[in-house]
Amino acid sequence: MAKINTLNDLNTWATQAAANQRPEDIAFLLAERLGLSPSEFQLKQELELSLDQVQQAQKDIKKLARGISPQYILGYSWFLGYKIMVQRGVLIPRFETEELVEWALQSLQANDKILDLGTGSGCITVALAKEAAKKGFTDLNLYASDVSDVALRTSEENFLTYQVDAIVRKANVLIGLEKFDKIISNPPYIKDTERAEMDQNVLQNEPEEALFGGVDGLNFYRKFVQQVREHLNSGGEFFLEYGYNQKEQLQDLFVQELPDFTIEFKNDLANKPRMVKGKWNN
Q: DSSP 3-state assignment of 147?
């Protein structure tokens, strides 16, 4: 193997050593480990590296070549500008969910009691709390729930890191929880039939219970609509993410089960329908 002295040498070696992985994952992993922004990674290919930097990067790339997600190798992911600790067994935050948080932020009111349902890493609660504080909302009552013990422990670590005061609950959908002014969730919505089309890294690394929502992907939503009235305060709202091809089915479900709610669907930045808000008109 040729001696690795520069970032370009390392990148060339990594591309060959992890030829089964996406180039963008290789670039992300190397840039993060070296403390470089994406543009710096492209512009500083002649950067000279220390032996320690090279050895650490080689360990990382060998893990990536075995199919371990780059975020799990690093131990963190980025979400709305916040570094969120993740580990295997906890869903890696998605950038689409950042848009859900931004939408919910527009409806915040003082003293809102907010539930992050299926919190996973706690990324939604962290981002919501920190961004709300920038808008002057420092009196929110934050709750985070999940069915997974690993997720709850991870979320608590992230809350501690960012000094977010949130009450953590173990719950399956809404059973056993109290009433809230707002519920926000990125639930499992992938159809079982879509498994064959998915990235193998996702299937190998991330928890199935956070990904798959049954044959049509709507298992969570059916349970949610049956339970939500018992867990929303008067005039309360929910914000949910869903799959890009599930809007029509959800429209039918909400018309049938939530006729007393005002339902609003929203497209993401790629102009795909991905989010829904419901407001209880009671």
A: coil
147/188 Cα distance (integer angstroms): 12
pLDDT on residue 198: 60
Q: What is the pLDDT of residue 192?
A: 67
Give the CA distances from residue 155 to residues 112, 121, 145, 188, 191, in Å, rounded to whole numbers and listed in that order. Answer: 20, 5, 9, 18, 26
Query: How many distinct structural domains can be found in the chain?
Result: 2
Distance from the first to the final alpha carbon of the chain? 70
Whether residues 59 and 147 fall in one domain:
no
CATH code of the domain in which 219 resides: 3.40.50.150
Q: Is residue 79 part of a domain?
A: no
User: What digits encode the pLDDT tens for the residues 3-29?
Assistant: 899 999 999 999 999 999 999 999 999
pLDDT at 210: 66
Q: Which domain holds residue 56?
A: 7-66
- In the chain, at which residue ranges do the beta strands (DSSP E only) sit? 76-79, 82-85, 113-117, 141-146, 166-170, 180-185, 232-241, 261-267, 273-280
For strand 180-185 and strand 113-117, is the pairing parallel, antiparallel, or unpaired? parallel
Both 13 and 53 in a single domain? yes
Low pLDDT (below 50) residues in the chain: none
CB 164 within 8 A of CB 142: yes
CB neighbour list of residue 282: distance below 8 Å, 6 or more residues apart: 234, 235, 260
Instruction: Say yes or no: 148 and 229 in one domain.
Output: yes
Quick count: other Cβ atoms within 10 Å of Cβ 138?
10
